[in-house]
Design goal:
The chain has 18 helices and 2 strands. By secondary structure, the protein is an all-alpha fold. The two termini are 38 Å apart. 55% of the residues are buried.
Length: 480
């Protein structure tokens, strides 16, 4: 397989993917199996037995945000994802900053997912009775090296790895969920627990602010749904397949999350003591698998939670490399991060992305952070960066679809992206205000990163170079 070049001399990616590949990339980047091994507990810590509402809120919000991505991807196909959609709709500088924010989100979420491997590996070793507890940084660095090796493969190999890993893990978790619900419904569940609608009850005093705080966990659970958009230059028919892939990813993952959180909530029980056990659980799959099926399933689910984390790491760092490749190419580079290998992978950009993820890990380890804290810290930073990118992309969708004169989108549909902006803004607010250290520091860290990106965007000539790069996607749509 050989690479091709644009008329300007920069290399391009290979077009070889179908809609299933693109959907697999988004689903693998989300990593729903391992997400529900961690974030359901976080939501329950705020909403108790009503944790399901966090995921309902998040599913609605993500569906509203996905509207803009789906609509724009029917017109714009580019490996830079929001770099291109925002650049074409709001201007080259705004596009560069959006891509810069998305790049931050991807490599930090990749770092968090890789760190989390150490958490579940420790749990697996304990369950197997192996008295060996390696330092989480050692595990994370080894895992990162494996991720980088796999990510250098041809993109269709990556998507197959992601899809296979998530399908097997999701099948096992779905079986567990159904077993839990069936045993609850037939009165054969441990502790005499039964099937009920108690998962719809919110703790006394719960208001919209509390639900919003818990929805941060739900929103993080969907982080990466837009990953298919980074394959805009590697899909055979991107303007048809990418929109379908985005809708498939959100729908499948949304159903999986709702089934899983209901099963987890009712499986642990809804009394105050049961909720306390759930909110302090280190491995909910393990607890439920052991209680409702047997120890063998608990261990198997932990193994596939680790596999799912590898899938997320591969997906996020592959996505980060493609966004960085697009940023480098848009900045007028012809070497370094703007190069692709013989297999069609942006290898240099991948190594830079992996290097930044490793740097995050080392800095966190130097602070003495425990594995769970280190995981949440970088995931939170990544979520804030992702929300910024989503806000810019949604603003771009509003301009392009309703004020650009380029589409015949019914005017009444403007309410969808406006609601998305409101929910995104609220979630950003919940991530930035009233938090304790170190979480109160993270918005400032993201702010510094964005200021750097803005400063770079004003480099002489960059605006014109980005505009020229984006013209290959939609030469008539770029705004000044």
């Amino acid at each position: 397989m050989t690479t091709t070049k644009t008329p300007g001399g920069t290399e391009t990616l290979h077009r070889e993917l179908k809609v299933t590949d693109a959907a697999a990339f988004s689903i693998g980047l989300i990593g729903p199996v391992c997400v529900m091994a961690l974030l359901g507990v976080g939501a329950a810590g705020i909403l108790g037995r009503g944790a399901t509402y966090a995921f309902v809120f998040a599913l609605v919000a993500v569906s509203l945000v996905a509207y803009g991505f789906v609509k724009l991807s029917r017109h714009i196909a580019h490996t830079g994802s929001v770099y291109a959609t925002v650049g074409i709709t709001l201007g080259p500088r705004a596009g560069f900053v959006a891509g810069w924010a998305l790049f931050l989100a991807y490599f930090t979420i990749g770092a968090g997912s890789t760190i989390e491997i150490g958490l579940f590996l420790e749990q697996l070793l304990q369950d197997l009775g192996i008295a060996f507890a390696p330092d989480w940084l050692v595990v994370a660095v080894i895992a990162l090296a494996v991720v980088l090796v796999v990510s250098r493969s041809q993109v269709h190999v990556i998507t197959r790895v992601l899809l296979t890993a998530e399908l097997i893990g999701a099948a096992l978790v779905t079986i567990l969920n159904l077993v839990v619900l069936v045993r609850l419904g037939t009165g054969t569940a441990p502790g005499g627990r039964g099937l009920s609608l108690d998962f719809l009850q919110l703790p006394a005093g719960t208001d919209i602010n509390t639900i919003g705080a818990a929805a941060v966990f739900g929103f993080l659970a969907f982080a990466g749904f837009e990953g298919a958009a980074t394959l805009g230059e590697e899909s055979s028919n991107p303007k048809r397949d990418i929109p379908k892939a985005l809708k498939i990813a959100v729908a499948i993952v949304g159903v999986f999350y709702l089934l899983s959180i209901v099963a987890q909530t009712l499986g642990y029980g809804t009394s105050d003591a049961d909720v306390k056990r759930f909110t302090s659980a280190a491995a909910p799959y393990g607890d439920l698998g052991r209680a409702f099926v047997g120890p063998w399933l608990a261990d198997l689910l932990t193994v596939f939670a680790i596999v799912s984390l590898f899938a997320i790491s591969i997906g996020t760092l592959s996505g980060a490399s493609r966004v960085l490749f697009a940023l480098g190419r848009g900045a007028g580079l012809t070497h370094g991060v703007a190069e692709v290998s013989k297999t069609g992978a942006p290898t240099t950009a991948l190594l830079v992305s992996g290097g930044l993820a490793a740097l995050c890990m080392v800095i966190e380890r130097l602070t003495g952070a425990a594995v769970l804290d280190a995981t949440y810290w970088v995931l939170t930073i990544g979520t804030i960066g992702l929300l910024v990118a989503y806000v810019l992309a949604t603003l771009g969708a509003i301009r392009f679809l309703f004020f650009g004169g380029r589409t015949s989108t019914p005017r009444w549909q403007i309410v969808v992206p406006i609601l998305a902006i409101v929910l995104l803004g609220y979630t950003l607010y919940r991530n930035a205000v009233g938090l304790e250290a170190p979480y109160s520091w993270f918005p400032y860290l993201v702010g510094v990163w964005l200021v750097i990106g803005i400063a770079i965007s004003f480099r002489p000539g960059l605006k014109q170079q980005v505009a020229a790069d984006l013209s290959s996607s939609d030469p008539k749509a770029i705004v000044p």
